[in-house]
Amino acid sequence: MTREELEISFEEAFKNAQLVPQDSVPQDLQLVLYGLYKQATSGNTRNMYFQNPQDIRNAFKLNAWMQVKHLSIEEAMEQYITIINKLMKERNL
Hints:
flat
């Protein structure tokens, strides 16, 4: 898959993610998806900025992103696409 095809598939997966009811996705998986999305769109966490890093929600988000910082942008996109496609299939969307 070329980079352009990957980006198109990633954008489609992001749009499809909006169709998956949020309450049907476990919070830990939501955080995984968040981390993958941030890695895919922003790269390494060194570019990360939070309004209030002491906020527990932001701490969980930062941790989710840090868990996937070893992935390249392409790898993060691929994993994000795979998870969203699986969620769509499981929910018959």
